[in-house]
Each structure stands twice: as C-alpha cells, then as structure tokens.
Amino acid sequence: MWQDVNWRDWGIILKLDPDKKIREDILKEILSYSGIDAVIVGGTQNITRDNTEVLLQIIHDADYEGPLIQEISELQAVSVNVDGYLLPVVLNAGHRDWFIGQHLTGIKALGHLINWSQVLVEAYVICNPDSAAARRTQAIVPDREDLLAYQTLIEEVYALPILYVEYSGRYGNPDWLKALKERRKKAHIFYGGGIESVPQAEEMGSLADTIIIGNLIYRQPQKLMEILDHRSKKSFLQEAYHD
Ligand SMILES: CC(C)=CCC/C(C)=C/CC/C(C)=C/CC/C(C)=C/CC/C(C)=C/CC/C(C)=C/CC/C(C)=C/COP(=O)(O)OP(=O)(O)O
Ligand SMILES: O=P(O)(O)OC[C@@H](O)CO
Ligand SMILES: [Mg+2]
Question: How far is the centre of ligand 2, averaged over its atoms, from the C-alpha of 17 (Å)?
Fold first, then answer.
C-alpha cells in the first residue's frame, strides 16, 4: 500500500480515537471536507477491537474516499478493514516494551499474517510529559539537543522513514521544529499536538512535512472545520509552505 500512495505529500492527517465520543453526524460532516489527506485511527487508552471496528464502520459509511490507516497501539485491536498500518516505535520510551518488546510479541503472534508492504514505521519522540502516551511509555522527555540527536539517530543509524514529534494535547515549540526542518536530510517529519486554530495549523504546517490533528476533532469540531475550509480555499499547506 505505502509504495502506491504519495504519503510524503500529505499535509494534514486527522487522528480519530476509538475511545473518544463524537456525534456520528458531526464526524461524517468533518469527513466530507476536502482538506483531509488521510485518516488515522488510533489512541493510547482503552483501544479495543470493538470500539475500533465501530469507528472504522462509521468512516467507511461516511463520504470519505481517502487513505484509512490504523496506528497500532494494541495488538488485539488490529483490524483488516484498513488500507495500511502505522507502527509506532517510541525512541524516548523509558521501558523497552514501547521500543522493541511489544513489537517482538506482535511479530511472534502475527508475523506469518503480516504483509509488510502495508506497514510503515513511525519513530516517535514524545515531548509532552503530561500526555497519556508519555505516561504509558514512561517517556524520557527530550530537550532540544536530544530531539536533534534523535533525528540524526533515525536518519543515519536506524534509517526509519518518519520522525513523529509528538506533543499530544499541548502545542509544541516551533523553534524546535524549525531546527529539525533545517537539519533534515531524509526522515519525513510528522508533527502532532495542540493544534486548535488556523494560525497554529499554518505555523506547524510550514515547519513539519505533515501535521496531525487529534483532540480538536472532539473538543471543537467547528474549529477543525475552519482549518479544513481554510486549507481548501488557500491550499496553504501545499503551495505556500512546502518548499
Ligand atoms: C492483518 C494483520 C495481521 C496486520 C498486521 C498488523 C501489524 C503491522 C502488526 C505488527 C505486529 C507488531 C509489531 C505489533 C506490535 C504492536 C504494538 C502494540 C506496538 C507498540 C506501539 C506503541 C509503541 C504504543 C505506545 C503508545 C503510542 C505511541 C500510541 C500511538 C498513538 C498516540 C500517541 C495517541 C495519542 O494518545 P494521547 O493523546 O497521549 O492520549 P489520548 O488517547 O488520551 O488522547
Ligand atoms: O490530539 P492532538 O493534541 O491534536 O495531537 C495529535 C496527535 O499527535 C496525537 O497523537
Ligand atoms: Mg490525544
């Protein structure tokens, strides 16, 4: 799958959480907007097969034709009803489970069934110590120097395709993203965390290759629609900011 889509051109991804509540009609309205390049289904807490399949069915029923990706955080919730998978590896995890342990377990359990062309690895650096993801992975919060070193590590040592700068729940430091952008040689940069307005989407959209919006969908769907509307009208991510 991944070799057939221009995922490096994705500007905005929506991340839908099976554990979060939203009215179905509002979600379907959001999914009908044209400024969405891909939808990720995933989250950190209470992800089950049941709530994942319910959400996937709603997305399949909506007026959305783009890529539908599952970000795997629970082995038992892996679904076949998606186009592809993003597999997180948390570089700054304080426990090896989130860097290597869960992955070994998963490969031993499902290895014979996995079509690896459907899998893309994301190297996470979790920067907000108050996020559920940070607590779950016992993340060792990086400073600016650490973050830049992680970038070099994944480009030159591990050769991973995506650096995911994860501020989940909090707006990050644009200066850090600027430094990553200036140094970047190979790894595509995902930024996610606290995007709640058009100026914030523009700012992080100009620094990261792809921005991910999560909580806003549930907290202020109207604001998300403003961002998507603005993007469709101005094509700001593709034209103004991608150089
Ligand atoms: C059909 C078939 C067999 C398909 C194959 C599927 C496949 C590719 C299997 C791979 C096998 C494998 C290697 C499995 C391991 C899976 C696994 C459990 C890996 C660990 C993943 C991981 C490191 C999770 C940690 C948490 C994390 C980074 C989650 C990502 C999502 C995230 C950060 C959400 C935001 O959460 P947050 O905002 O903090 O919290 P809220 O939910 O409260 O908002
Ligand atoms: O929920 P928010 O803060 O938008 O963050 C998006 C995403 O990076 C979460 O994994
Ligand atoms: Mg979240």
Answer: 10
ipTM computed for the complex: 0.93
Helices assigned H by DSSP within the chain = 24-31, 49-61, 101-110, 132-137, 144-152, 174-183, 198-207, 215-219, 221-234
Please indicate whether residue 212, judged by its CB atom, sits closer than 6 Å to ligand 2. Answer: yes
Q: Whose CA is nearest to atom 7 of ligand 2?
A: 192
Centre of ligand 2 to C-alpha 182, Å, is 23
What is the bridge-based pairing of β-strands 84-90 and 162-166?
unpaired
Asked if 202 contacts 168 with a C-beta cutoff of 8 angstroms, the reply is no
What is the distance between the terminal CA atoms of the chain, rounded to a whole angstrom?
26
> What's the token pair of residue 210?
């792809």
Q: Is 225 in the pocket of ligand 1 (CB under 6 A)?
A: no
pTM of the model: 0.95
